[in-house]
Specification:
70% of the residues lie in helices and 0% in strands. The protein is mainly α and 303 residues long. It is built from eleven helices and no strands. The chain is elongated and about 80 Å long.
């Protein structure tokens, strides 16, 4: 009987795949397509990506242009659909350009986290021994610190900016990817098909690429989707404290900080970016759940 955990890359197409037409990824796309929540989340993220890409060309006004004669205008004011802030800047325009900043922050944090955590996870999980013990003790020590406080300390040393803030967030997320990948690799390297490949002299790199790596993509993909929401919240928190995006640039987190000062007079200054952050984080979590279901995984990946 075939082991259900055997990598799909090592065997030919199953009768089910032939009947449907296509291979592994075609079957995966079909399963994702049947998940309405995942498809809706993908659509929302695609829309946000388009807004981020073409944002500077579709803003109704200059997002940094000040008009002290028209400060704190209410939504649906003439020429300002969502009103203006305390300096007379158009809120809708700043929300649009803030989309690019917020999504860029997510990409930077995930890139740093995966560049550190994934390779170390493979090494510690596959090599084991003293190297595994040493790295995991460091990993446990890093995860024991309060994330936000450690991020604040790192940004205080490096200097407040979006790049430094996301570097700090990425460093804090790396231990989670390391632990996830290590756990998956430890379970896979003892499988029968891996032992068989090792016994016939297959190079270690080939074993990792052909047998282990494909089976890590499922939990890793889910972790990326869920962790993206955490990265957005972290960026918003650091920007709210003035350690992320610096004026006059706008991000959703920095707009909440500015709106907090005028909440009694103009609550929409913080409500609009806050709603966008909440919806985007919910979208990432929904996408993560949908991908998990499409990839046939029953376990949840915690961020």
């Amino acid at each position: 009987m075939t082991d259900p955990r055997t990598p799909l890359t090592t065997s030919g197409p199953t009768p089910e795949m032939v009947a449907h037409g296509g291979g592994v990824w075609a079957d995966f796309r079909r399963r994702v397509g049947r998940n309405r929540a995942a498809m809706t989340a993908l659509g929302v993220l695609a829309l946000l990506a388009l807004v981020a890409l073409f944002g500077p060309f579709i803003t109704p006004a200059d997002p940094n242009a000040q008009n002290l004669r028209g400060v704190l205008l209410d939504p649906f004011s003439p020429g300002h659909l969502l009103g203006t802030d305390q300096l007379g800047r158009d809120i809708l325009s700043r929300l649009i350009v803030g989309t690019r900043v917020s999504l860029l922050a997510i990409c930077l944090a995930l890139a740093v986290a995966m560049a550190i955590g994934v390779p170390l996870g493979f090494l510690t999980g596959y090599v084991g021994g003293r190297f595994d013990g040493f790295v995991m003790r460091l990993n446990d020590a890093a995860m024991s610190f309060p994330p936000l406080l450690l991020a604040i300390a790192l940004v205080a040393v490096l200097g407040p900016s979006l790049r430094n803030a996301m570097l700090a967030v990425g460093l804090l997320m790396a231990p989670r990817f390391l632990r996830l990948v290590r756990g998956v690799v430890i379970g896979l390297k003892e499988e029968t098909y891996v032992e068989a490949s090792r016994s016939i002299g297959t190079p270690t790199l080939m074993i990792i690429v052909r047998h282990i790596l494909p089976n890590t993509l499922s939990p890793l993909t889910v972790a990326i989707a869920v962790t993206a929401g955490y990265a957005m919240l972290s960026e918003a928190g650091l920007s709210f404290l003035g350690l992320g995006v610096q004026p006059p640039d706008a991000s959703w987190g920095s707009m909440i900080r500015e709106g907090f000062l005028y909440y009694g007079r103009s609550p929409w200054l913080g409500i609009f970016p806050g709603v966008l952050i909440a919806l985007t984080v919910f979208t990432f979590v929904t996408l993560g759940d949908g991908l998990r279901d499409a990839l046939g995984r029953e376990e949840r990946t915690e961020s």
